[in-house]
Structure formats: C-alpha cells, structure tokens
Design goal:
single chain, 745 residues, alpha+beta, seven-stranded antiparallel sheet, five-stranded antiparallel sheet, 28% helix, 22% strand
Length: 745
C-alpha cells in the first residue's frame, strides 16, 4: 500500500539545524541564559565535580521514575531514558537506559522552541507532553515524553526530559500494535508537544484526554505522573547546583562537557585510517500476509575526524516496519554510543557533531508522514543499528589500537510479543514479554560474546523476574533458558540468546497475541572476519499442548517434544488467538561470531558442547571438531576434519599455514593485511588481490543453501525470495574471511 504525503505535515517534522538559525526562530519574548563562547573556563577540579553531579542527576531521575511507575517495562525492563539539555536543546548528559531515545529528545526541544515559544509560550513551571516521533520525544507513539524547561532568574537555562514506553495508548489493537497498519491512522495517535503542566499546575483536562485513549489507563496515568516527578527532581537538583556554583559556571561546564566529548571522539576517529565500509540488511514481512524482503543499505565513510552514514539505496517505506528520521538517527546512536564511545562521557550533543546522515526521504528508515511507524524502534531503527554496528566493527578492526572495541553484531532483532486478555483478577490485561532483553552479545577478537547479556540499545535493560510476571499477568512460565546453537560460530563464539515457553494460566478466556520480529528467515546479527551470523529467531505456538495433564502428573515439561500437540510456526508479523490449552515458545536470535570457526581452540568447542552451548552436530559440521565418547576433542580426527572442511571451501587441497605470515603488512582484520595496496592472508601469506566492496577480489566464493549451512535457519518458511549462505575464503589456506546470509543473486 502506498502512502500519500499529507499537505502541511512537514510542519510537524524536526531535524537538527544550525544553532544560530534556531536562535533566530525563537520568539523574542523568551530570554535565554547563555554564556559567551570565550567565557572563562572552570578549573579542572570544579569541572569534574559539576560534571559528575549532572551525571548523577540523570540517575536520580531514573530512580524516581522507577519507584513511582507501576509498568513492568519501566520497573522490570528499564525501557526508559532521560536527558539534560542546554537552553537550545543540545544534550549535555543522557541516561544509560534506552539509548536510542536520546536521538529524539533534542529534536523535540528544537521543535518546541520554534513552534511553542510564541504561542502558548514557554514559562517557568511548564512541561510539554509529546509522543510524535516525527517531531521528537520518542521513536514510536508508545514512547511518550515529558519535556520541561528549566529557568534561572527569568531566563531559559536548560531542559530536562523523561521518556518511557507506555503499554497502551490506544489505536485499533491492544498494546497499540497493529501489524496490518498501512498508515499511522490505524495506529495510536501521535501528539506533538502539548502543555500538560502550566506554571507548575498539572492540566487535568490534558492528562484525561491523553489517558482516555488507553486500555490500561491506570498504568499510563501513573507513568506520566512519574515522568513529571522525575523532571521535578531534575529541576530541583539543577537549581541547587546553580545556587551552589553559580548559573554561569554550571552553564560553562555544560558547554564544556559537550565540547570534551566531541574532542575525544574526533581524536579517536583521527587515529583510524580513512575508508568506506558497506553493508545491506533486510526486514522480513512488512505486514501480516507479506512474504517480502525489504532492504536497508548503508555505506559508512570515515574521513579525517568525521563519519558519514549514507543510507542511499534503501527501499521505499512500506507496511508497518518503518521509522521516521528520529529512528534512523537512533539506529546510529544505538551502536555508536557503546561501540565507539563506550569510554567517552555520553554528552550526546557533542558526539552527534561528529557524524552526518545521508538518506532519501520516504524510505523505510526515513519515513514521511503518514507512514505506519508503531513498531519503529524495534523494526527499521533496530535493523539500521545492525548495519551501523557491523560497519563500525569492520572500521575499528583496521586499527590495532582499537581492536579491543571490535564487536560482532549483538542480537539482531527485538522479538515483540504482545498478549491481551483478562487477568487472574478479572481485569483487562495487556502484556509485552520483555524476557527477550536477554539477548546474546556479539563476539570480540579476544573473547566470546556474553550469553544472555542483554541488548545493545538498552545497556541497563534486563529480563523481568518470572515470578513478578506471573503475579502481574495470567501466564505460567514452563522454562526460561539459554538456547543451544543460538550464538554465531567463530574463532570466538557469539553469545547465546534466551528462549521462553509459557501458557495461559488462571484466566477464563483465550488470549489475543501479536508477534512481530525480524531475523527469522535471515539472522541479522552479522559475524565479522569470517564469523557466522548469530542464530535466527523463532517463535512457535504449540496448539492443544498436554501441559495440564503433564503438570497434574508431576512432570514439568522441558522441551517442545514433551508438550505434545501441534507445532505452528509464527511468521514475522502474526496476529492470532491463543487458546487456554496452547503454549507459546519465543526465541530471539543470538550474537554474531568473530573469525573463522575452524580456528577455534578444539578444547573450547568441547567445553561448549559439554555446557550445552553448542551441539555435537554443529561442533562437527561448522567447527570441524570431532568428539570422543567423553565429549573431549579428538585432536587427530579434528585435524583431518578441518582439512576436509577447508578443501570443500576452495575445491582443492589447501596450502599449509605460515606462522610468520601474520607479521607481514598492515592488519585490517583477523585474517587480512595490506601489502603495498594488495590484500594478503595473515595465515598463509598468499596475495588475494585488491578490495572491492570490502572483500578481496581473489577470494573464493562458495554458496550453499541456508538450511544446510546455518543451524536453525529456514528462510522458505517466511519469505519467498531464495536465501543463500555465502563464504569467501583464501584461495591458498582456505581460511574463511567473510560469511553472510544473502538474497540469491
């Protein structure tokens, strides 16, 4: 379905603009608290004291929200965030929770300054509510922000903001998730910034009008009041800070924090060789009934101390998998903050000065109004972050000093499962399963990816407590565990991800279920330097399972085979009814691997098999490790098996590895080095030609059917287009230098 742009909708859109231009657009009656660019700097000790105090204020705002909120997404999963901004909305300090949200908070402040400073005005004690992703303040409509100006002696000093995911804010479907939406009018209503607190007084009519939309009004109202309280705490602490050290001195520190983060990131970039890295990812099934693959393309170019993320070539917006500009920007920040700036203070206003975004409007990760964007952060924004993470990892791999920061892509998709029904108390209930926060991290050059460690975009996210979930909602968990073979194979292995199985419990009625996830046909957690991608995601419904009878007989089922019944594959976008006798199995993909799997220490593979992280079959077929009856590695048989795998890659006997080859040339990853403009193998010393699209021109290409080559992937179950597993290997020693799952042709 095509979406026709609505005339005038461009007025409800926000983009970064030069600060001088922003100043000129602000109503002249609004006085700003500013300091001159050449203001006297603060001494280093005072600078650090004030900087850390500002950082601690965001933490205190977070604790306030968590203590007041009653929503599991906040109290259990940490799906929220905060920002403290200067008078123009530049982000001075952001929280460590859902980091993508920082990509939209400054946009909302820019819009408020340009569109609300004259009418209705911006006054002390005001707060604005926004859940319009085109304007900013969140990445989809459920992300509802409260944004508040901070005044000092009658002048606008700065801004605080709090944003969290609200469980239901209206729309045609519970949880505000409509997997059949063709435009935003089928989803929850986006609200541009509206004054919800005026002069310190909560506007009950505005609050009631917003809460009235929700199927879970008690949760929504409490969350909004908690966000207001968090902003109040931020105001009190910032005011006390200005009173103690002086407003001008605090403002000088705020500006210096952004400048310092910018300087440190630019310094890091300057130490990396210039170059370009490209990747392509796909979103599967744009809506219920679709079986297509929808492309996002990225070319990352590093020049001097600046990055350019160019998404030219991305497919047009379609179905309900889109995100607006704020989501594309969030996709960059999801990956950039932890991978490239993990040890740099997150003064996002400074960090975002170091990169440019290039994109065509009307595409799936830069969608124009009124595209459907209800699942923006965990569809196209997440897919964007996968490509950014992959390209950043490849870029960092060229720097010996920064290789410790290299990481393959973490869990490549957020598996959204929304369940709606009647709870054990007879009340309406909408539940989102946040257990999938326990994803697998990507492998690094010197260590395996952490198992069920979390997800990259929410550093402090966590899988909720099972007992608390069973108390709040009418479900019984049969298991929650790490899933074997879900981490991508490599010299270092990708982290395993979680699987859960649950059944309706203590409810009189069937449950409505909405499932939305990417990475089922093709795992989106790419490996690096020859590593395999992480395992694909998989959701199942076991119809008419034997759970009641098993539990009555004292047996707790621990596998799908024990459940009996009929297993039904859940597509990427599925809306269905879950019967009282049905069981739900949910499993997101794991982290990508790093390096050629046949270079992994056989003893490490054997340890993984004994710990049920890797199956014996994958140990043999992918790692080339033969195990004896005690599950120890048979070293002689393993050498022969690995020679067999290498021979199959290039169609001939491989040459011997040369231990001295690794010292030649300039390394660009685990396997390759540059020799006078040519690419050489770091294992055998052979020359592989030049680079084209990031790959050696002389590498041997091999294609295999996906179900045969990659454990757990079954592309034909989800999409019509054929998928293949491609490997590129050194023509000499047959070391695998790159591996990917791609669309055929």
């Amino acid at each position: 379905m095509s979406v026709v742009p609505v005339p005038g909708s461009e007025a409800f859109s926000s983009r970064p603009i030069p600060m001088d231009q922003l100043r000129r657009s602000i109503d002249s009656r609004l006085a700003l608290h500013e300091v001159a660019p050449d203001a006297e700097p603060v001494d280093p000790l005072t600078y650090e004291v004030i900087r850390h105090r500002i950082w601690s204020i965001t933490d205190e705002m977070g604790e306030t929200l968590k203590r007041m909120s009653g929503s599991p997404g906040v109290t259990e999963a940490n799906d929220f965030d905060f920002a403290i901004c200067d008078e123009l909305g530049q982000e001075v300090q952001v929280g460590l929770y859902n980091t993508g949200l920082v990509a939209s908070m400054d946009l909302a402040v820019y819009w408020i300054l340009r569109n609300r400073s004259g009418n209705p005005g911006i006054e002390p004690g005001d707060m604005f509510l926004s859940n319009d992703p085109w304007v900013g303040g969140g990445l989809h409509q459920n992300d509802t922000a409260i944004i508040a100006p901070v005044f000092w002696e009658g002048r606008l000093f700065g801004w605080t903001s709090a944003v969290c995911h609200l469980i239901d804010i209206g729309g045609t479907k519970p949880g505000s998730v409509d997997l059949q939406a063709g435009d935003v009018y089928s989803e929850a209503l986006p609200t541009p910034p509206i004054k919800i607190v005026r002069g310190g007084v909560l506007q009950e009519d505005v609050l009631d009008a917003f809460v009235r939309r929700s199927r879970m009004p008690h949760h929504v109202q409490l969350d909004l009041r908690a966000e207001i309280a968090a902003n109040q705490v931020g105001h009190q602490r910032l005011t006390a800070l200005a009173e103690r050290y002086g407003a001008d001195r605090v403002k000088v520190v705020m500006k210096a924090m952004m400048d310092d983060s910018e300087r440190r990131l630019r310094s890091r970039l300057s130490g990396i060789a210039d170059g370009s890295w490209s990747s392509v990812g796909y979103l599967e099934q744009a809506s219920v009934g679709d079986r297509g693959l929808h492309k996002i393309a990225l070319t990352l170019t590093k020049t001097g101390d600046r990055l350019t993320f160019d998404f030219t070539g991305t497919d047009a917006q379609v179905g309900m998998i889109n995100c607006p500009y704020s989501g594309m920007r969030a996709g960059v920040m999801f990956a950039l903050l932890p991978i490239l700036a993990g040890d740099i203070p997150w003064s996002a206003g400074g960090l975002m000065r170091c990169f440019d975004l290039v994109s065509e409007e009307g595409t799936i990760n830069n969608a124009t109004f009124p595209a459907a964007i209800g699942l923006a952060p965990i569809s196209s924004a997440w897919a964007t972050s996968n490509l950014v993470a992959e390209c950043l990892g490849r870029m960092l791999d060229t720097s010996v000093e920064l290789r410790a920061r290299v990481q393959s892509v973490c869990t490549g998709s957020y598996d959204v499962v929304t369940l709606a029904g009647v709870d054990q108390r007879g009340q309406p209930n909408v539940t989102m399963l946040f257990d999938v926060m326990a994803g697998g991290y990507g492998a690094q050059p010197d260590s395996d990816g952490a198992d069920t460690a979390g997800i990259l975009p929410i550093p402090m996210g966590r899988a909720p407590d099972v007992e608390m979930q069973e108390f709040l909602a009418p479900y019984l968990f049969l298991w929650r565990r790490e899933e074997i073979d879900s981490g991508g194979a490599g010299r270092t292995r990708g982290g395993l991800s979680i699987s859960i199985c649950l059944v309706p419990h203590d409810t009189p009625y069937p449950v409505g279920g909405a499932f939305s996830a990417n990475g089922k046909a093709r795992a989106e957690s790419a490996g690096l330097s020859g590593g395999y991608p992480g395992g694909a995601g998989r959701d199942l419904i076991v119809r008419d399972a034997d759970v009641t009878a098993l539990l009555a007989s004292g047996v707790i089922p621990a596998s799908l085979d024990e459940l009996g019944g009929t297993i039904e594959t859940v597509h990427n976008r599925t809306e269905t009814l879950i019967g009282l006798g049905d069981a739900i199995f949910v499993h997101p993909g794991g982290g990508g691997g790093y390096g050629d799997p046949v270079l992994r220490d056989p003893a490490g593979v054997a340890d993984d098999v004994r710990a049920r992280r890797v199956s014996p079959q994958v140990a043999l077929d992918v790692y080339g490790v033969v195990l004896d009856d005690s599950l120890a590695a048979d070293l002689d048989a393993t050498v022969s098996r690995r020679e067999e795998l290498r021979r199959a890659r290039i169609g001939s006997d491989p040459v011997a590895v040369d231990p001295a080859a690794g010292a030649r040339g300039t390394p660009i990853d685990d396997n390759l080095a540059l020799h006078d403009g040519q690419v050489g193998c770091r294992h055998c010393g052979g020359i592989l030609g030049g680079l084209q699209n990031g790959l050696p021109t002389g590498a041997v290409l091999r294609e295999l059917p996906v179900p045969v080559a990659v454990p757990g992937m079954a592309g034909g179950d989800y999409v019509d287009r054929e998928l293949v597993f491609r490997t590129y290997s050194c023509p000499g020693c047959a070391t695998q230098v790159h591996a990917e799952v791609a669309a055929a042709g």
